[in-house]
Every structure is written in C-alpha cells, then in structure tokens.
Amino acid sequence: MREKWTNRFDFLFVTVGSAVGLGNMWRFPYLCYRNGGGAFLIPYLVTLLVVALPQLILQVSLGQYTSLSPVKAWEMVPAMKEVTPYVVLFQVWKDALLQNLYSLSLGSGGMVTMGSFNSYHHNFMRDAIALSVVNSCASFLAGFAVFSTLGFMAKQQNTTVDLVAESGPGLVFTVYPQALSMMPGSQFWSIAFFLMLFLLGLDSLFVIMEAVSTVIIDQFPAVFDKQLKKIFMRFCLCCFYFFAAFITVTQGGMYYIHLIDNFSSASWALLFSGGCECIAISWIFGLDRFYEIMCNMLQFRPRFPWFKYCWKYVVPLLSAGLFIYCLVLYKPLVYNRTYEYPAWSIGVGWLLSLSSFLWIPGYAGYYLIKKRCLEQDKQKTSDEGKNQMEMEELKVSIAESLEL
C-alpha cells in the first residue's frame, strides 16, 4: 500500500523544492544570454503553457491515479512501460522547451513518483499551476540578478555586455561572486549564497533519489519487504551518486558538466519521452477515458481543458519537430566558443542520450512481438483443440457406423 502525504501542502512544497534548483539559478540565465536576452521569454512562456504545464498535469495525475512508480504506472499502456537566418528560431524554441522540461523534472519520472503519494482526490491541477508559476518566477528573479549585474560590470569596465562574460554554465558563478564582492559584508553574503546553492541542489536531489528508489522497490517488492532494506538500498544509491559526481569537481569538471547538460540532463531525450507519454495516453489508452479519470479525481470538470488538445496534438507534434531538428542539424559540441570536444567525449555523450530513451521503442517492440507470439500460440492451441475434437467426433461416428 503506497504511503500518502500527511498534509495537502506536502506535495506542493516537495515539488517546488525539486523544481526550484540549480537549473533556475544558472541554466536559465545563460540560456537567456545565449538566445537574445528578453526575447527568450516569449518562447519560454509559450512552451510553458502548451507543453510543460500540460505534461506536468498529465504526469502528476497519472501518478496520483495509479499510486505507483513510473515503470509500474505505465502498465496501463503496457507497450510504453519503459518511458521526454529559421535555424536560429528553432534553436531558441528548443532551448526554451528543454529548460521548462528540465526545470520541472518532466520526462524523468520525478513528478509521477511524487504524484503517487497524493490521496485520490487531491487537487493536483491547482498545485501544478502553482508550481509552474513559482518555478518561472524563480527563473526570472535569477535572470534579473544576473543581467543587472552584467550591465553594471559592463558600465564599470566601459565595454559591452557580451565582452564581460562568456555564455556558458559557469556564467552565474562569474556574475554572482562579482556582485557579492561589491556588497557590504561580502563574506557573509557569499557564505549565504553558496549555502543556498547547496540546499537547492540537495532539495532537488531528494526527489531524484525518491524516484529511482521507488521504481526499484515497486519492481522488487518481495526483496524490499522491510524498512531496513529500503534504507540500505537508498544509502547505496546515495554513495553511487556521490562517487559518480567526483568527476565534476576536477580541473576539467566544467567540461563534463557541459557535456552531460547537452547530451543527458536537458537533451532531446526529454522531448522524446514527453512526446511518447502524451501519445500513449491520448492515442493508445484513450484521451477521453483518461480525462474522465482525471475529472473523477478532481471532483470537478475544468471549464476550458486546453491541456487535452495539447496532449493529443501540440506536445507530440512540437516534440517530434524539435527532436528531428536536434538530430538533423546536429553540430559538434563547443564550450565557451573556443573548445571543441574530442570524438571520444561525443561518443560518451551519445551513449548517455541513447541510454535514456532507446528503452521506450525497444520495449514497445518487444511487447508487441511478444503479444503477437502469444496470440499465435493461442490460435494454434485453439486450432489443435478444434482438430482434436473433430477427430474424436469422427471416431465416434465411425464406431457408431460399424456397430450398425
């Protein structure tokens, strides 16, 4: 039996802690910087409304309905059990969409897992909208802090903003320390700032760890039947992530972070998994069928269910278009406009990406082949049984004829 949140605000606070993290503090500002500053907000808000928020509602409602981890929850659609001068324009929209998916932990199982701890009639739509608003406000706040400081630094040095700092994951770690050093009591504010970064990362990690551990527990309930075993498994996961992250604090750590960020954390794998989720619910399980389930959980019918049409049309088409764009117009990865990654590192990056989403079509193909084989075996058994019955009837008929 799945444990449930003890307070109606527990889910909201946990998901806000997961969403508002390092992605808001450093990834959003540098994506704005790379894609034209304030102009980036237009595709960011549009993709939030038509892709990210509908996917958030879908994933939370799925977890709340099934009260299961992502792998088990998708058994309702068995084939999807393993489930997210124009070139420049597509790049901006791709970055905006991926930032929304990455920041809201969509396509990675976190929101499905957190939703599985909700009571059946919890108002997840209210929390999804609140989470989206809080997450976006945190990103905007970080962006304002970065760009105001960049403007001040450019004026102090009598130069332009693009010459003050390079666009990259380290942008925020250049700008914030510079701003803090100019404040009264800079040592105190510096300690507070980096302590905040540590707590933001830790809070997001809680949800990631819970998503992974819940999948393992749901897959092997007989093995993890006692609380002590669950604690030991989570401890082993923490140790694994701790030692795996050592590479990011070496001298070349920023290069590895940039590689992981582009190929794994917020890559086309999120586009693929998100599109597959919406296709599974809308076109396989049944859009109206799932919508009725959702309304039953909410105990009311939304006045304008725009997210239904986003699930069925917008998300699959936009995700597929941007996914194909990412593959067709792929360019070698470059860091800080100067360092081009070697071939072996690009190979590692592709392995990271493929390991994230190849399971979806792979398992779907396996399931369909298995289902087809079972149907053929069933038909063969049925035919053999029918033939045997006909033979028995023929034997009886012959025996009766001989007796006569």
UniProtKB/TrEMBL annotation:
SUPFAM superfamilies: SNF-like. Pfam families: SNF. It is a multi-pass membrane protein. Keywords: Membrane, Symport, Transmembrane, Transmembrane helix, Transport. It is found in: Membrane. The chain crosses the membrane at residues 38-58, 128-154, 188-212, 232-256, 268-288, 309-330, 350-369. Its main location: membrane. InterPro entries: Na/ntran_symport, SNS_sf. Belongs to the sodium:neurotransmitter symporter (SNF) (TC 2.A.22) family. This is Transporter. It comes from Clavelina lepadiformis.
